[in-house]
Amino acid sequence: MPKRKPRTYDNKLFVLDTNVLMHDPTSLFRFEEHDLFVPIMTLEELDSNKKGMSEVARNARQASRMMDEIVSSATEDLKDGIPLHEPSRGMASGKLFLQAEAIRYELPEALPTVKGDNQILAVVMHLAQRYPGREVILVSKDINMRIKARALGLEAQDYFNDKVLEDSDLLYTGSRELPADFWDKHAKGMESWKEEGHTFYRIEGGICSDLLLNEFLYQDAPTPLEVWVKEKEGKRVLLETLTDFGHAKNSVWGITTRNREQNFAMNLLMNPQIDFVTLLGQAGTGKTLLTLAAALTQVLETKRYSEIIMTRVTVPVGEDIGFLPGTEEEKMAPWMGALEDNLDVLNGTTGEGGEWGRAATRDLIRSRIKIKSLNFMRGRTFINKFLIIDEAQNLTPKQMKTLVTRAGPGTKVVCLGNIAQIDTPYLTEGSSGLTFVVDRFKGWAHSGHITLQRGERSRLADHAAEVL
């Protein structure tokens, strides 16, 4: 009797690991026409992780609720799979299968079946054997789980849907160098005029269609040029020269910018029309110092904002130091060393007055800076505040949305971070909330971004960043 050919399938079968659902509860609707299989062990692990107030616990509860809605609305037999078209509102057209039977599959002796990960691997092996003509793929955020799966001859993938970019090198930098022949190509029909100390150029054609609003352009010619895009209509753009914050007469709280990118950043920070600023850069590029200098000037001198609110994600680099006594501000104090260091620098630039004068200035400054924890941000609205989110690379896109939507009328939000220093598990350079907002906000008239390139801390810090 001839051997029957295995049936071939057009769509794939993805087996979900628990960490995918805890990372993104909406992942159930992100696999388009493909089918999903949720092992019993995944449901068990969701159940054991649902208690608490952490982001992971909230996501576990949300994933369970979504699965409950899908199952309770199903009219079909669970063994045949539940169509996802209705629950996902057309986002997914595959089916959801729940493990409805005990699966016994002999794993290698070195893999104890007590462990949840290994039970999920057993399910994947069982499905791969049951559907020989079908691609059965394990989806997991756990690197070791994927390595084990591949070692057993199974297909495994990371969960990519949350990634804004595959390669962080493709991330928008906020600035671009103009080609040497830029003026020759764009001189035809160019308009130019001066207004309030700035020169404006209206040009069209050439690279204009590629430019984004609030993008910085520069040219290292004998007469260097630094401009930014202020208006864009189709292939016509309006360029405006920048304020030179590197000159002592334009110093901000006694600070002058030391390089081109810092000057770009300060133009964004000091412009009242820009509501949302993102600054990326490695340690020592001056992100926090520039932001605080701009914030203090606009709170204490020009009174544009009523106070500064600073927050950051409390993810320790080493071991946690346990529960901390005191008020919210006192609990946040260990995380705010960067703020204190920068305030010491800024306080030293306020001129004469001796020790008493400096102490009085420090007290005045501290009275206008509030330090808030991320844990209590839900439901808040900040009106007329200068909100600084430090170490923003450790935020998930969902947390970032929660924070940025706190902004009320007259509030400016500044996100600082270095996507090469992510301390949160399951977040990568491509899926960080900071990468997410940089990509989504580019080209909006009231937001700006700049990637700071050069460290300005010290020759020791610069050399360490290069060689270590």
Description of the molecule:
The protein is an alpha/beta fold. It folds into three domains: 13-157, 5'-nuclease (Rossmann fold, 3-Layer(aba) Sandwich); 169-241, no CATH class; 258-467, P-loop containing nucleotide triphosphate hydrolases (Rossmann fold, 3-Layer(aba) Sandwich). Helix content is 31%, strand content 19%. It contains 14 helices and 18 strands. It has helices spanning 18-23, 40-48, 55-72, 116-130, 143-151, 182-186, 260-269, 287-301, 328-332, 337-347, 354-367, 397-404, 433-441, 459-467, and strands spanning 13-16, 35-38, 82-83, 95-98, 136-139, 155-157, 175-177, 191-195, 198-204, 216-219, 225-233, 236-241, 276-281, 307-312, 369-373, 385-390, 412-417, 447-452. A six-stranded mixed beta sheet has the order 3-4-2-1-5-6. Strands 7-10-11-12-9-8 form a six-stranded mixed beta sheet, covered by helices on one side. A six-stranded parallel beta sheet has the order 15-14-16-17-13-18, sandwiched between helices. A hairpin with a 2-residue loop joins strand 11 (225-233) and strand 12. Helix 7 (260-269) runs parallel beside helix 8 (287-301). It is globular, with a radius of gyration of 27 Å.
